[in-house]
Amino acid sequence: MYMKTQTFNIALPSDLVKKVDETAKKEYRNRSELIREALRAYLKDAQEWEELFAYGKKQGKKLGITSEEQVNKIVSEYRHGKKSF
Fold this sequence. Notes:
Elements: H1 14-26, H2 31-62, H3 68-79
Helix pairs in contact: 1-2
């Protein structure tokens, strides 16, 4: 399968470039492969967090929770055995 690519320049601190190069060498990859994989992993994690927060917001709405302070209170009560879910 052919993947269309686009080339662009980025500026990185030299110590980060050194770490990228060391890691790429250990993993028998080149810089581009390593950076592509790192970006994929980052974007996947970001999407999962976004979905998790959306789910939490939806569940909070169902429970009538309207503020972060309420969440903190519920968590504190649960941790101290004063409330269970």
